Amino acid sequence: MHHPSHLLPTAIAVLLAFGCKSAPPPMQNSAPAPSMEGVPRPFGEHPVVAGLGTASDGARPAVATLPASVLTSANSSPDPLPQAFASARQTMSAQQIGRIIDRPIPFPPERVAATRKYIAAHYAPEHQGTGDSGIEFEPRMIVLHCTEVGSLQATLNTFSGTKLPAARSEIASGGDLNVSSQFVVDQDGTIYRLMPENRMARHTIGLNLSAIGVENVASDERHLQSAQAAANAWLVRHLKERYPKIEYVIGHHEYGRFRGSGLWWEKDPRYFTHKKDPGDAFMQAVRAQVRDLRLSSNP
Fold it and tell me: Domains of the chain by range and CATH?
């Protein structure tokens, strides 16, 4: 990325403020995560990167928080401040990076049936779910979100029901299947898997049969954490390794770019909402850490 010379002093000052003395250590190669096919079971924690385990004292590592002022500056002047967002990854411990905790949300037969109904209503016959359940798909994309809900538990509560809450009136015309995502990343960077990656979740209009959804817990995009950016980057890398056909990583606010593309399968042209999460600064911070994967943000 080219940085105008007049921005370099600002970038250096921000990087020094975060105590960045060297480049982040290289990502370790991940081992395949255990299969989640079939009915979800009560999974425990499992490391998915060789050599990483739980902290010996069981304590949660400290969280690196990016000040709101830096996020605001990054959104208004996106080059090069988001690199400071990404570089704060150094303050995270090894226990925070490279872990997936399986925490499946309820997926009874009624939810399976509601998902099949949603697919039939929104996608043409040639674009339907696969597998025995009829709700599986081959991932081609990863969409990053902000929950706009302030806690992990509140997010899980929102996703746990089969039917869409009455408060989500802006998407009620799309059916009563509840929203959800395959992953949620908490404020400290802990990654939770809520369902198999290739099971359809209702998280992005038009792209649900192409995309894995990753929600990030925060009341709004200004309160997203640097720990979450680092965890998202690791997860993108892990998913690309597991699903080589993934070609894109986008923010929810960018999904409209794919209208009319080969991945946009929504039948109703009026069914569309404008989004602002997780914001340009967060996406730039994540992309800076996975640039070598050459994932696109445009169709």
Answer: 66-124+133-293 (3.40.80.10)
